[in-house]
Amino acid sequence: MASMYCKLFASLYQGTLRGRAHEILVFTNLLAHCDSTGMVDKHPRAIAEEVGLTVDEVKAALITLESPDEESRSPELDGARISRIDAHRSWGWLIVNHAKYSAIRNAEDRKEQNRISQQKWRERKGISKVSQNKPESANTDTSKDKDKDKDKDSDTDSKAKVKTHLPASERGIAFAEWFRTLLPDTINLSANWKNDWAKCYDQMIALDNRTPEEITKVCRWARADNFWQSNFMAPPKLRKANGEGVKYFDVFLAKSSALAPTEAKKAELAAAHTAPLGKWGI
Q: What is the mean pLDDT of residues 11-40?
């Protein structure tokens, strides 16, 4: 189902499409109508009616968008912005960089969600932020009252430190043991791998507002990907950001949603991971 909504990046108007009104009109129309994987199945006549161009003008713009662009920032498909879904018909496209920009968008959208989630988590654990700004009335306290307040604040800080170092949950431990089954038997792990991975899982749930389904999904995808299976060997990487400031979790989630595995790969994943998921209950 088409999302009917998209977030436009200013770079669209600052690159090689700058000043090319027809191409920008058609491209933004495709962005607004594409589904969560970047697919848009729409005839040029329908595009023309919506953007106010002739069918010939739309077709000319589509040719430009399908063509390589040697000045493009993105190397995918030699800079082409859209790719034909089916070579046997002249319409229906995939937005080439949809997964990349969805990851950036999702990362930004999650900032507010994460802030709220972190606040709820602190409230649930009994942790409060100590304000750096004291009220004016504090300046009139006696020395004895100040000492009492200092002792009280010290006690609060101590409790907060204890609560932020809670042990990993049983579900987190189960996740760590499951993720270990995705790795080669010969891999060398740190002494605290299980506890570290379990705490990472708990933090993704409590602080990053991830769901268990999303976490297992991105782990499965990355461990099955030809490139990432050699570069993603531990869950903590999911909480780190790449060179563009996007967390690897969001990168993997966008790619796993955009790229459907082949039937053979589906069977391979099912055989390799269905049993462990049932065993560990995650």
A: 80
- Grouping H, G, I as helix, E, B as strand and the rest as coil, residue 16 is coil
Contacts of 125 by beta carbon, 8 Å cutoff, 6+ apart? 163, 164, 166
Taking Cα atoms as reference points, which of 56, 62, 76 lies closest to residue 20? 62
C-alpha 226/C-alpha 206 separation (Å) is 30
Q: What residue ranges do the domains of the chain occupy? A: 10-96, 170-280
Task: Decide if 98 contacts 51 (C-beta within 8 A).
Answer: no
Q: What is the pTM of this model?
A: 0.43
Which residues share a beta bridge with 156?
none
Beta bridge partners of 93: 40, 84
The residue type at 142 = T
**For 101-136, what is each residue's pLDDT tens digit?**
666 555 556 666 667 777 777 777 666 554 444 444
Q: How far apart are CA 4 and CA 105, in angstroms?
A: 15
Interval 89-97 mean pLDDT: 81
Q: How does 20-56 read in b/e, with b if 16+ C-beta sit within 10 Å?
A: eebbbbbbebbbebbeebbbbebebeebbeebebeee
pLDDT confidence of residue 176: 93
* Cα distances (angstroms) measured from residue 48 to each of 6, 51, 78, 131, 139: 19, 5, 27, 57, 70
CATH of domain 10-96: 1.10.10.10
Helix (H, G, I), strand (E, B) or coil at 40: strand
Which of the pair, 78 or 211, is modelled with greater confidence? 211
Type of residue numbered 90: S
